[in-house]
Q: What sequence folds into this?
């Protein structure tokens, strides 16, 4: 029997929540209401991570025990105050209106619509074709342990420091780490991908035993870590900072400090443990918009590599 609907006040909005007692995370028995309470607890952080970005929603209408729905188009029944951003998809020559978070009420509405994960673009609605966020995805292979991820994170940090770039790390909520760098929104996705690949190759040069930039998964050493530059391609998204992930233990993609890398365990960050951490530390990505790195040096590296015979980024549709 379905539990009665409730109403949640979020600033000047009221969001009606149906089936608040539906279990979403079977490992702990956490419900839709628990998920809403989590997002309310980290409200400023999740809004900061999603602010004015087109956002794909990963929805679980029956909880994690059911199927996952990748939702780009805003589903029917959205409230009139919900903000969206039109995205053109050339492959289908159609425009889709995606959710555009500008306030916490939108996040809570999305959770009411069974959203667990939030996957924003690395560009904003002012110009969706010009990324303002360079994403470094440290993606371990199936036989790559987390100690390797830690080592490579330090190498990436070293390269960023040498460039004068400020990186903001977080757990992926899965088995890897992400590092975000703010960049001026003055170049397209192709340039940002070339820059990201040039950076990845430099990390690979410094840690050749641990790192690969080999494009095809079948050709990679499963014990190595892939620096996934393609997460900067148009319409490629990864879980936002403070986004819950679709795992039974309620893991969260969580910002960390650089001095935490050596001891961090991604499994420690859940919808139960992150709110008290957030209350103590605040949003560790709060200052990200006060930083900016021009990727011109990385494009110089890309030119150098390509002149030396290296291949440019593989078309993500290949």
A:
């Amino acid at each position: 029997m379905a539990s009665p609907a409730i109403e949640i006040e979020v600033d000047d909005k009221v969001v009606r929540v149906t089936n608040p007692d539906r279990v979403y995370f079977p490992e702990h028995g956490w419900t839709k209401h628990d998920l809403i309470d989590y997002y309310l607890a980290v409200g400023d952080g999740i809004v900061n991570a999603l602010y004015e970005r087109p956002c794909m929603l990963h929805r679980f209408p029956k909880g994690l025990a059911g199927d996952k729905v990748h939702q780009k188009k805003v589903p029917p029944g959205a409230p009139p105050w919900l903000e969206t951003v039109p995205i053109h998809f050339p492959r289908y020559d159609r425009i889709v209106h995606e959710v555009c978070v500008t306030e916490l009420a939108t996040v809570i509405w999305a959770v009411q619509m069974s959203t667990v994960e939030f996957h924003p673009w690395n560009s904003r609605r002012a110009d969706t074709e010009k990324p303002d966020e360079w994403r470094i995805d440290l993606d371990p292979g199936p036989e790559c342990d987390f100690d390797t991820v830690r080592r490579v994170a330090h190498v990436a940090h070293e390269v960023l420091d040498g460039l004068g770039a400020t990186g903001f790390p977080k757990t992926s909520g899965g088995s890897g780490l992400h590092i975000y760098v703010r960049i001026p929104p003055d170049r397209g996705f192709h340039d940002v991908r070339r820059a990201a690949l040039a950076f990845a190759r430099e990390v690979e040069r410094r840690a050749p035993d641990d790192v690969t930039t080999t494009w095809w998964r079948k050709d990679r050493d499963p014990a190595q870590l892939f620096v996934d530059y393609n997460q900067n391609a148009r319409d490629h998204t990864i879980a936002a900072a403070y986004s819950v992930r679709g795992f039974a233990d309620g893991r969260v993609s969580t910002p960390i400090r650089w001095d935490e890398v050596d001891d961090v365990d991604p499994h420690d960050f859940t919808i139960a443990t992150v709110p008290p951490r957030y209350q103590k530390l605040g949003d560790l990505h709060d200052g990200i918009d006060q930083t900016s790195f021009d990727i011109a040096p990385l494009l110089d590296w890309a030119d150098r590599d390509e002149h030396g015979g290296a291949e440019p980024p593989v078309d993500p549709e290949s």
